[in-house]
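Bit of a strange request maybe. I'm writing a small parser for structure token strings and I need a real example to test against, not something I typed by hand. Could someone generate the tokens for this chain?
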Amino acid sequence: MWITSRHRRRIHLPSRTPKRQTFPAIPISGRGYWGEFQVGRGQKKGDWQFDYTRIFIEREAVLSNFDYSDIRQGSNVTEHRAMVIYQVHPNVQLSWTGLFGRPLNFDSTKPPEDFLKRLPFDVIDTF
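Reply from user aminoacidic:
Good idea to test on real output. This should exercise your parser:
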């Protein structure tokens, strides 16, 4: 911090706050892509809906608390999601979701991890 005295001399006062440690930014981080394709609808009895989603999120691109909660991890991830929905009754849906994802490994000497495969099945009742 600098102050100026009455005689127009600049005096340097050392700061009492500790220096913050900063980390260099990773040049490729901060991008995230979400592409989704849907066919059909799930409104009447007998309706089918098909969905494919491609998710690509680099490290620190989004706040993971506000991200899609079913993916492998909040950021630094590549994910494929496939969904099939069948409307059994006007207020009952059967839904199968396939989630296939792995962490990204840019600038790493380790080979990429295998895809984590999760296949949840849901019965959704609306009232």
